[in-house]
């Protein structure tokens, strides 16, 4: 029995050592390694966190980047994503409103920056923006950048049509968020009104326009370990600069309202897997961290280098002051506007994408 336990421990130690070394060389985990990591037991979770933490510290030190959502339009979406409180037919009790004005968006962004946010994410529900919607957002970006020129503006408006990404970029947006959410195989279980391929197409449009691609996933929706590895591999192919990791908030009144499949330890293993897949990329803990990681949230900071501060789109997070205390108590520091988030080589890639090949001029990120 003791021998079996030691062998198991040695095997996990070897796996973690390999994953750390591969990540440092920029190599993704093999499928087998990824599945073994996800299947490792709760007893070993501190070893998993420590290994992922070594990679995190190498590329991001002890910095934590803060992001804040500005919900420009809420609810009333014609799409049917099963995890979303804003979906078609949702009976979830959320605020529903049409577009806020550019001034209100700028006030919200201003408050976010005053609380330490380096990036604001302008989000609107819907399948994708009309050209008039894009104009509303570009107007808001203009007011925000007038007031806070250094803040990173990310936009999340759903599926993009030709030229819309370029208009957002020209208005001053730095990034575009569109999550793949889950594996291609599991996608149809979550949504029938658009496809996984539609989502990939929008991430590629944003990237081609020179916007920094932000794309991540949501877990706790009934996906298998194999689906988790699939979406990590599929995201890696897209080359995002930031990867938000959401844990399902099971809203009553949505199809996934009763799904409570995650444990804090499983969330930590998923985050660690993404750190190994994306060693030098901003891995962000997004929705659901309070209800799924619960008191283990500080451990997650040893893996991810970025969090959303305060509230999510349609639910409240923990108060911003508690997040700042958690960061300080855990020995981390809030990343300042002047700090470069991404390590050198990846930062240079963002520069080339935004300004076109052949330039070495630093990007305004
Ligand atoms: S995730 Fe986006 S597209 Fe899907 S239902 Fe929610 S708001 Fe609509």
Given the helix and strand composition, which structural class is it? alpha/beta
Order of helices and strands: HHHEHEHEHEHHEEHEHEHHEHEH
Query: What name does CATH use for the topology?
Result: TIM Barrel
- Report the bound ligands by name, code or SMILES: iron/sulfur cluster
Termini separation comes to 55 Å
CATH 2nd-level architecture: Alpha-Beta Barrel
CATH C-level class is Alpha Beta
The total tally of domains equals 1
What is the strand tally?
10
| CATH homology superfamily name | Aldolase class I
Helix content: 40-55%
CA radius of gyration: 20 Å
Q: What is the residue-averaged pLDDT?
A: 91
Count of alpha/pi helices: 14
The proportion of residues in beta strands is: 5-15%
Which geometry do the CA atoms define? globular
Largest sheet: 10 strands, parallel
Low-confidence stretches: 1-6, 359-365
Task: Give structural notes.
The protein has helices spanning 2-24, 31-39, 45-60, 102-114, 131-147, 164-171, 184-190, 196-208, 225-238, 264-277, 289-292, 297-300, 320-329, 344-355, and strands at 63-73, 119-124, 152-156, 175-177, 212-214, 217-219, 242-247, 282-285, 306-308, 333-334. With 365 residues, it is of the alpha/beta class. Strands 1, 2, 3, 4, 5, 6, 7, 8, 9 and 10 form a ten-stranded parallel β-sheet that branches. Helix 3 (45-60) runs parallel beside helix 10 (264-277), helix 5 (131-147) packs parallel to helix 6 (164-171) and helix 9 (225-238) packs parallel to helix 10 (264-277). The model is unreliable at 1-6 and 359-365 (pLDDT under 50). It binds iron/sulfur cluster. Iron/sulfur cluster is lined by residues 77, 79, 81, 84, 86-87, 125, 127, 158.
